[in-house]
Every structure is written in structure tokens, then in C-alpha cells.
Amino acid sequence: MGNSTVIIIGAGPASLIAAAELASAGIPVQVYEQNKAAGRKFLVAGHGGFNLTHSEDISDFVNRYDTTEIQDIVRAFDNMDLVGWFNDIGIPTYVGSSGKVFPEKNIKPIQVLQAILAYLDRYGVQIFYGHRMVDFDHTYVEMDCGVDRVKIKYQRLLLGLGGGSWAKTGSDGKWMALLESKGIKLNSLRAANSGLNTISDYSRLAGKVLKNIHLRFEEIQKAGEVLFTRYGIEGSPVYYMNRFIRKSPFPVTLYIDLKPKMAKEEMERLLGQPNVKVIDVLRNKIKLSPVAIELTKELSKEVYTSVEGLAYVLKHYPIQVDAFRDIDEVISTAGGVYFSELDSALELRNFPGVFCIGEMLNWEAPTGGYLLQACFSSGHWAARKIKEAIWKEMNV
Ligand SMILES: Cc1cc2nc3c(=O)[nH]c(=O)nc-3n(C[C@H](O)[C@H](O)[C@H](O)COP(=O)(O)OP(=O)(O)OC[C@H]3O[C@@H](n4cnc5c(N)ncnc54)[C@H](O)[C@@H]3O)c2cc1C
Description:
It is a single chain. By secondary structure, the protein is an alpha+beta fold. The chain has helices spanning 13-23, 40-47, 58-61, 68-76, 79-88, 109-122, 175-181, 236-245, 264-271, 278-285, 290-296, 301-304, 307-315, 370-393, and strands spanning 2-9, 29-33, 53-54, 93-95, 100-103, 126-129, 132-136, 140-144, 149-159, 186-192, 196-198, 209-217, 220-228, 232-234, 252-257, 317-324, 332-337, 354-356. It starts with a strand and ends with a helix. It has two domains: 4-191 and 327-393, FAD/NAD(P)-binding domain (3-Layer(bba) Sandwich); 196-324, no CATH class. Strand 12 (209-217) and strand 13 (220-228) form a beta hairpin. The chain is elongated. Flavin-adenine dinucleotide (FAD) binds at residues 9-15, 32-35, 40-42, 44-45, 48-51, 132-133, 160-162, 165-166, 170-171, 175, 331-332, 358-359, 367, 369-372, 375.
């Protein structure tokens, strides 16, 4: 049986920053990760856009989150703090044209991870790979390390176990059963930042992007790009709609404004000119993109040949969707440990000394850096609270 001040389970971004914050304050930290390496999902994120955070003003930034608890946590260690932290560990960043924050162009995701790990190493953080947490009580955490099981005494136990997508990265959501068995209330894990299956088959448009559109669901509207796939649609406005769509039973209808900058009346005027061919007006006057023109080919003859009908559909092109993608392939999951189970330090009310951080908490946000930011912020938050508590106990 070992003994350590702070035991952290999982080596994702939330855990790694927590380890950094604690260790740099002189508090001994051990990290246990079930995989053979740290930050596998972080590296998967790196293969995509790898938005570490977003540069928008924090007052707008926090509105991307669905719960006030995570908003407060993000405010306390915000996008500027995170950029500063990356700079401190040797990772300069830049702001892309979309406002998203990336590591400098010549820096690969693995180098970002290596910089974090090097920082932890400098402060003496020990990371044990191939150790899967299988149980914990008020005093011990139990690990399966392949050959046998070990019980380790903890003073503080920090759980950064991730969400429930991309199980092959280790974020398998299996911790749900363990926490539930301990009476901890959890919101079920659901697909977030997910593509949508459409009822109509758009596979002939697979890989094509509708740019500069507005996507609408009921009263909600989001600008951006929609990508067609063999099963349906993807893209940031689609992901944004997830949390609103989830409240209604499938199928639901989304509407695309194919030309947000042009009013319907102007379209009617252009389409209503004498002796014009509809396709010419769509292409040359309304200047619809080729992908949008492809969509108009789906319309019935009655709609296509009606000035009002066509103008209306160009502003409200219906896309019926009937499912989220399989949870394992989505970018993140909503659901997890309810904040009501935690005190303001993210410490489980019924398990004093045990903290939860990162995507395993019950919040959701769109992609674009907001996910990683909240994971880093929550890791930083819990670590700071632990640090302050330990210092108080030591009368520092
Ligand atoms: C394709 C893709 C692209 C993404 N792109 C972005 C992006 O550009 N920007 C952004 O902000 N976010 C992005 N994300 C989301 C982001 O990667 C995650 O939100 C983030 O990694 C979650 O961090 P975390 O520390 O909470 O958990 P994770 O990174 O999921 O780490 C949890 C760790 O805990 C370990 N673990 C779990 N259970 C146990 C156990 N019982 N014992 C021991 N270890 C355990 C796991 O093996 C894992 O290593 C993307 C995600 C995906 C899948």
C-alpha cells in the first residue's frame, strides 16, 4: 500500500493541469492512467482543429456553456489565463481568423502534450500508466494494474475520467457504473457536438460544404457552415443545435437560410423578372453556391416554379433529421456528475476528499476551444481549492 498527498486518476487535460498546479506549489502528486500513454483524446483533438480555447471576450465566452457552475469556473481561470499558462510552459499560441486559439503553426499536438509532461516531470509528478481505477472508498483508491490490484491511500483523490465518446482513447464512461453504485447522481451521457442523420439521402453531396448559411431550429439560429456526409450533416451550427434538438423527440426539422444576406422580398423581385430562367437567377443574381443549387434540385416542380414558394424555401430550406450519431464517434458528451453532488470546490458531498473535474461533469459546450477550456479551468479550479485546503491544514 502506497501513500500520497494527492492522487489523480486519468491523464487528460483536466488532470494534467491540476497536477501542474499542485506540484508547482510543492504538493506531491501521483497520476494514474489506464492507458499506456497520457492525453490520447487530447491528441485526437489535435488531429482536428486543435482549438485550445477561443479569444472572444470572457463575457461572451461564458455564455457558450449551459450551466452557471461551469461558467464561474471558466471565469476564474479564463481563456487569457490559459493562453498565459501555455506560454509559461513553452507553447506560444496564435488567434486564427475565426477567433479560435491554436498552438503556433510549427508546433504539433504531440509537442504540446510533451511540453505539459515535461513541466510535470520538472515538478516531480509521477505518472503510472496501465493503472485502471476500479474502486475507491473514503480512504483508499483501488487500481487494477494488469497483474494484480493495489490499494493506495489518498488524502485527496481527483477524478478526471473524461466523457463517454471515443472509447478507444480511454474516455469510455465506465466510471458511471462505479460512481452510480456509490449513490452519486449522474445525468446520463449523451452525444454532444454530434453530426445528425438525415431522413433524405444527401450522400451524393458527401464532402461538400454549404458556406455562409444560417441554420435554424425553432427560435434558435446559428451562422456557419454545414458539411454533407454519407449519413447527413455535420458542422459547427449543427453541433450548436444539439442541446436544443435533444429536448424534442425525433424526427425534427431544421431550416437552412441559404442566403442570409438577401431578403426574401429581394429574391422574389429577382425571380419575378419577366423572361428569366430560374437557374440563371439563382446562379447569377441571387448568387447561390453550387451546393445550394444542388439542393434546389430536390424541390417539387410546384415550388421551383413559384416565385414566392422558391424564395421562401431559399430562406427556409428544410432538413429533416432523425438521430444523433453513435455516441462513440462524437466530439464530446453531455451529462455526467451533477453539480448538486459537488460542493463549490468540486468535492463530492458524500465523499469528502474526492473531486471531479473535466468532461465527466454535467455541462456541455460547443466545439471551438470551449471544451478544452472548461476541462483546463475545472482542473485548475479543483487543484487551487485543494492547494488552499492543504496549506490551511499545514498553517502555511
Ligand atoms: C475528434 C475530437 C476533436 C476534438 N477537438 C477539440 C478541439 O479542437 N477543442 C476542444 O476544446 N476540444 C476538443 N475535443 C474535446 C476534448 O478533447 C475533450 O473535451 C477533453 O479531452 C476532455 O478532457 P478530460 O481531461 O476531461 O478527459 P479526457 O481527455 O477524456 O481524459 C480522461 C482520461 O481518463 C482516463 N481514465 C478513464 N477512466 C479511467 C480509470 N478508471 N482509471 C484510470 N484512467 C481512466 C482515460 O484513459 C483518459 O486518458 C475534441 C474531441 C474529439 C473526440
